[in-house]
Amino acid sequence: MSLAVWALNKALTPLIQRGALTLILPSGQRLSFGPGESGIVIARLTDNAAVWALLLDPDLKTGELFTDGRLVMERGTIYDFLSLILDNDGEENPSPIVRAFDRFRTATQLWRQRNDPGRSRRNVAHHYDLGDDLYALFLDPDWQYSCAYFEYPGQSLADAQLAKKRHIAAKLLLEPHHRVLDIGCGWGGLALYLVGVADVAKVLGVTLSEEQIARAQDRARAAGLADRARFALTDYRAVEGQFDRIVSVGMFEHVGLGNYETFFQTCRERLADDGVMLLHTIGCSDEPSVTNPWITRYIFPGGHLPSLSDILKAVERSGLIVADIEVLRLHYADTLRAWRTAFMARRAEAVAMFDERFCRMWEFYLAMSETAFRYEQVVVFQLQLMRRQDSAPRTRDYLAAAEADLRARENAISIGDR
After folding, report:
1. I need a surface site. Which of 152, 157, 375, 377 has the fewest CB within 10 A?
2. DSSP 335-395
3. CA 361 to CA 67: how far, in whole Å?
4. pLDDT-based confidence at 119, cuts 50/70/90?
5. Span 52-88, pLDDT tens digits
């Protein structure tokens, strides 16, 4: 038995306790793991260096090997492969080398997340300025690129994204005279909902993506809302003035661990004395940890998935008050499944835009993200924050009434458009 075969057996035999995995080595030798007789996943490693890369640093190298065509799926998809591994992850005992990589990444993560304004803009461009044609392949018609809110099984992605906007708007306790700051506004969908449906006076949406800002501005003009929904290519640290409400959806993941106190202190300074803020962010429901190195190298440079304790320490130091916390479990897994299904259905179009390697990278990104939300402690936090104790009702009863009112407004607008 070669050293590589011995090492694979030692790593995978205790790990795969459910399902079945077959690995085909470069020599043609087959190694089988797990008790399952159906749903077998078969993967092939094309060269000996790939075998050792997978053994020594699986968190980084699995994605690299699949992207480079050195980890090839012979039966099942990369989603099936990752599901099998992560569904068994509770039995895993990482090797000393894997633990050493984790300790090194933990020790250096603040350096890698030093997201000053210039670096933040480059990090945003790396992902969000790939071209709107790419995102049109899989996003819903409102271009919501964050976790949807599924109110019932089988709800369409478009309806679940509308429900997300409605749920957030309800938590903001909006009034017609309110001025709202949307930090990380994306393509403008939430801002346009706040002025078009919730009927607030003004929204300022800020982003560092040139392509997002252009589409958001075009959408506001087309809807006749440009005088109330304004969008600016601006870092959150450069925003001036005060706002009655602040909302941030899917942006906090890009702030960087070392900038949390700056973020919340800035939000406190921008928030009116009786203001309310809603933060919607991906996070981890377990103890603080390092974010997956493949994701931060290839997909979201400078990103970090915080634990709740990471967030709350910075909130407390800012002087903001935590009024409410909701944890959305599995909603993002279902969102990502819808995105992955749509992307794979139009994969040939993505290949024509980019190339085969890029599409393997994005398939891995969508599959890996979905499995993380489905099998690991990755969730979405919604934090309602304020400066004064009396800025929100004492119970959550207001939420159902606010959502019902917003739903009635949506229906009235829909009927009026027919």
Report:
1. 152
2. HHHHHHHHHHHTHHHHHHHS-HHHHHHHHHHHHHHHHHHHHSSEEEEEEEEESSGGGS-SS
3. 5
4. low
5. 999 888 999 999 999 999 999 999 999 999 999 998 8
CATH topology of domain 117-416: Rossmann fold (3.40.50)
Burial class (CB in 10 A: 0-12, 13-18, 19+), 83: buried
The residue among 164, 211, 209 whose CA lies nearest residue 190 is 164
The contacts found for 316-321 with CB under 8 angstroms, 24 or more apart, are 317/261, 317/264, 317/265, 318/261, 318/264, 318/265, 318/267, 318/268, 319/265, 319/268, 319/387, 320/264, 320/267, 320/268, 320/271, 320/277, 320/385, 320/386, 320/387, 321/385, 321/386, 321/387, 321/388, 321/389
End-to-end CA distance of the chain: 71
Confidence band (pLDDT; 50, 70, 90) for 103? low
In single-letter form, the type of residue at position 344 comes to M
Which residues have a Cβ under 8 Å from the Cβ of 214 and sit 6 or more positions away? none
Alpha-carbon distances, residue 8 vs 36, 43, 384 (angstroms):
18, 13, 47
Q: How many angstroms separate the CA atoms of 91 and 37, rounded?
A: 20
Return the amino acid letter for 414. S
**Is beta strand 202-207 parallel, antiparallel or unpaired with respect to 179-183?**
parallel
Amino acid at 228: R
pLDDT of residue 97: 46
Among candidate residues 239, 240, 276, 236, the one with its CA nearest the CA of residue 259:
236
The DSSP letter of residue 26 is: T
Question: Helix count (H) and strand count (E) of the chain?
Answer: 17, 11
**Secondary structure class of 400 (helix, strand, coil):** helix
Sequence-distant contacts of 99-105: CB under 8 A, at least 24 apart: 101/56, 101/57, 101/59, 101/60, 101/293, 102/59, 102/290, 105/290, 105/293
Higher pLDDT, residue 204 or 293 = 204
CATH of segment(s) 3-93 = 3.30.1050
CB 163 within 8 A of CB 155: yes
pLDDT of residue 111: 46
Q: Which two tokens stand for residue 302?
A: 């400078």
Q: Do domains 3-93 and 117-416 have the same CATH topology?
A: no
Tokens of 192: 């346009």
| Domain ranges (residues) in the chain | 3-93, 117-416
Residue 243 near residue 272, CB atoms below 8 Å = yes
